[in-house]
Amino acid sequence: MKLEMLTEFLDQELRVAEISDSSVNGLQVANTGEINKIALAVDASQAAFEKAREERADMLIVHHGLLWEKPVPLTGLMYERVKTLIQNDICLYAAHLPLDLHPELGNNAQITQLMNWPEAEDFGEYHGSVIGKAVTLNKEMDVEDLIRLLKEKLDTPLTAWTFGSRNVRKLGIVSGGGLGMLQEAVDGKFDVFITGEPGHSHYWTAREAGIHVIFGGHYATETLGVKAVGRLLEKKWGMETVFIDLPTGL
Fold this sequence. Notes:
Elements: H1 3-13, E1 26-29, E2 37-43, H2 46-54, E3 59-64, H3 76-87, E4 91-94, H4 97-101, H5 107-114, E5 121-126, E6 129-142, H6 143-154, E7 159-161, E8 167-173, H7 182-187, E9 192-195, H8 203-209, E10 212-215, H9 224-237, E11 240-243
Parallel strand pairs: 2-3, 2-11, 3-4, 8-9, 9-10
Antiparallel strand pairs: 1-4, 5-6, 6-8, 7-10
Helix pairs in contact: 2-3, 5-9
């Protein structure tokens, strides 16, 4: 498949041009123009690039790309990363906020689907975009049961600040580093806020507000979006895809 056709499809599906972000979303590094196999990963890293090379992938799609707000010199680690891509004719495509907020493929939408929760509403404003999801369960659930179910479905260790009432029903979900939206969950009288990683500065807000906060890991909560993109490309274009699993422990 031609790179131009594939990137045009991804740009439109993920609304790349419409979404303000600190990430340079879309095609970050090109190849010679042919795509036969696509690798997907959470992070753009030397390890991911080398695995993509081993998989003989022509394209790597990631959530966290190489290029962000400020220009960076192609020296040191950045030079080695880009050199690996170019020497092996692997292109790099990044989708940060577009892959958080997508109504079907997005990390947060995928979490609600994985959990088989009721239809979610939009929640969690970041950089002028609403990127998370809010869910009201059909009936109350014991918070410890919720934690166990999340751990099972995400297949990852969880940590939690359990400061609320035992029975919960109203949940807010923002994957990755979404703890900055905790106050919005407090203001919305949510019982539980689910995100990726903890932050010291928010501990007392959660405790004093009496809200549960469950941390599924920045990495684990953001594997779902790129996997969903892979499934879409397999279904729509018959592309061969592979997910490169490189957990960070965070």
